[in-house]
From TrEMBL:
This is GAF domain-containing protein. The keyword Transferase applies. The keyword Kinase applies. Residues 21-163, 184-327 form the GAF domain. One of its GO terms (molecular function) is phosphorelay sensor kinase activity. Transmembrane segments: none annotated. InterPro entries: GAF, GAF-like_dom_sf, HATPase_C_sf, HATPase_dom, Sensor_HK_TwoCompSys, Sig_transdc_His_kin_sub3_dim/P. It comes from Ruania alba. Keywords: Kinase, Transferase, Two-component regulatory system. GO terms for cellular component: membrane.
Length: 546
């Protein structure tokens, strides 16, 4: 069969360029090439960044030809297709088949061309099995069709990029709205992982956040079974930390081909994308998207959009945290106002009323006052009531003021210990000396952080570790303040614990030049319960003292 005239070529080009969906473009290229040349078999192989076939589409029923082209020698012939069309009277005429024995049966005629997009080899279009030889005219038409295909592929990419950007921007708006609407930070981070994974067509999304000490830990994961991912400590010289330090995202073509894989759990994935959560110049986390082995690689366009969304999410997180701090400050201010009003108004009025009642009582009790003893008793009861009300209001004022940080830190810790004993059922032992109390009194800026550490330690011991005994030691020595909380529970499980609260403590410690660590009580150590109970954890939090 001879090639079609010019109208056939024009129709083929129109059929290729009339679609914007990439799969349809590739399908039309293959069918148009077979139609133009009369070849019973046509196929296109799209290459990934490593030069390996990522997508394969074919038309025609030619099992013998297909088997020959998938043979190692046939694959080498496909790899040999260069800028100029490769036209073979028979596939075995190619040097790659030189090791075939003499007299080997003839196989199939072959024509192959490159499909190039912006001076890069996008894929290979090839045809085989034609009854008559492929002609130079066939080669020219297929080459022109491949050129048109390159343009159509580029248009399809632009269209796909525009649609991708639209979907990502919608997700970014949803994330920002959620964060700024007052949603809990942990809930919002879970939403970020889920929605970004969906819009990126990823199989798994994880978020890396500051952990204990200098560690950065996977705190959130969404997608495929991810139980073994949460709690992984990222290697300090790995990709995540590099992205965090540089402030720029990266694309990994495939973890399955990586030689030095520092996180073994990532070995089950293929393409990946890393985007830093940047709040200004500060990195507060890393978003990692993972696709299954064999899935399409992430594009530069997806990386650019992911970086933008990650920055947007980081800014929203920072603003949300600032708003929560402002809300807390407003709450404390309101409590202080209530305390002042109670003192300045209620107590003063009650005190004045008490004075008037006292004067009346004195007059009533004067000789010859003529007042019944019952009236005197009523006045006495009224005075007692006023005194009781004044006492109650004074206690309320005291409580409000102490909660508003007017009480010494050690007193607040003592109250927290009492609550842990009564509400959580913990047997708590607290120790500190006068020097430590004085050092804390001089560092009012540590008060909230100290209370956060103590509360988090009690919460972990009671709810997660299922401890019975807890020891709390406050020590100020050699320019450093240390809180050590030891329990006799089951100990930390880094493979399953999300540890977001502990990561918050680590951030508080870093603000004061200190560290926060959580360790398991070793075999040679004794837990908080003494020799009768084994196991447990030790939470250590430090801050520099001037």
């Amino acid at each position: 069969m001879t090639s079609r005239p010019g109208n056939g070529m024009l129709n083929a080009v129109l059929s290729v360029t009339s679609h914007l969906e990439l799969h349809e473009v590739l399908r039309n290229v293959v069918e148009a090439a077979a139609d133009l040349t009369g070849a019973p078999y046509a196929a296109i192989g799209v290459l990934d960044a490593a030069g390996e076939v990522e997508t394969h589409l074919e038309t025609g029923d030619a099992p013998d030809v297909r088997a020959l082209l998938t043979h190692p020698h046939g694959v080498e012939v496909l790899e040999a297709i260069g800028p100029e069309p490769l036209l073979l009277e028979d596939l075995i005429d190619h040097p790659r088949f030189a090791d075939l024995p003499p007299g080997h049966p003839r196989t199939a005629r072959f024509l192959g061309v490159q499909v190039r997009v912006r001076d890069h080899t996008y894929g290979r279009l090839y045809l085989a099995g034609k009854a008559e030889p492929f002609t130079d005219d066939d080669a020219d038409q297929v080459r022109l069709l491949a050129a048109a295909a390159g343009i159509a592929v580029q248009n399809a990419r632009l269209y796909a990029a525009a649609r991708t950007r639209e979907r990502w921007l919608a997700v970014g708006q949803e994330i920002t709205t959620t964060l700024l609407s007052g949603t809990d930070i942990e809930e919002a981070l879970g939403l970020i992982a889920a929605r970004v994974r969906q819009v990126a067509h990823a199989d798994t999304a994880v978020i890396v956040l500051p952990g204990l000490g200098e560690d950065w830990v996977i705190e959130f994961a969404d997608g495929d079974p991810v139980g073994d991912l949460v709690g992984i400590v990222m290697p300090p010289t790995g990709r995540a930390m590099t992205v965090l330090r540089d402030g720029h995202g990266i694309i990994v073509d495939s973890f399955a081909r990586a030689r030095n894989l520092r996180v073994p759990q990532f070995g089950r994935y293929g393409p990946s994308l890393y985007a830093p959560l940047m709040a200004g110049e500060n990195g507060i986390g890393v978003l990692i998207l993972l696709r299954r082995t064999g899935a399409p690689e992430f594009t530069e366009n997806e990386l650019t959009i992911a970086e933008s969304i990650a920055r947007q999410a980081a800014l929203a997180i920072t603003l949300s945290e600032s708003r929560q701090a402002q809300d807390l400050a407003a709450l404390l201010s309101e409590r202080s106002r209530i305390a002042r009003d109670l003192h300045d108004l209620a107590i003063q009025h009650l005190f004045a009323t008490g004075l008037r009642l006292g004067q009346a009582q004195q007059r009533f009790l004067e000789p010859g006052g003529g007042v019944e003893e019952a009236v005197a008793g009523d006045l006495e009861a009224a005075l007692d009531g006023v005194d009781s009300a004044v006492g109650q209001i004074r206690r309320i004022v005291h409580a409000l003021r102490t909660d508003a940080e007017n009480a010494p830190v050690t007193e607040r810790v003592n109250r927290e210990v009492a609550l842990a004993r009564s509400d959580l059922g913990l047997a708590v032992a607290l120790s500190f000396d006068e020097a430590t109390a004085a050092a804390l009194q001089a560092r009012e800026d540590l008060a909230d952080d100290v209370m956060a550490v103590v509360r988090e330690g009690f919460a972990n011991a009671a709810r997660h570790a299922r401890a019975e005994h807890v020891q709390v030691a406050l020590v100020a020595d050699d320019g450093q303040f240390t809180i050590t909380i030891t329990d006799d529970g089951v100990g930390p499980d880094p493979a399953t614990d999300r540890r977001s609260g502990l990561a918050n403590l680590a951030g508080r410690a870093r603000r004061h030049g200190g560290r926060c660590t959580l360790t398991t009580v070793g075999s040679g150590q004794t837990g908080a319960g003494g020799a009768g109970r084994a196991g447990g954890a030790v939470l250590t939090w430090t801050a520099d003292l001037p």
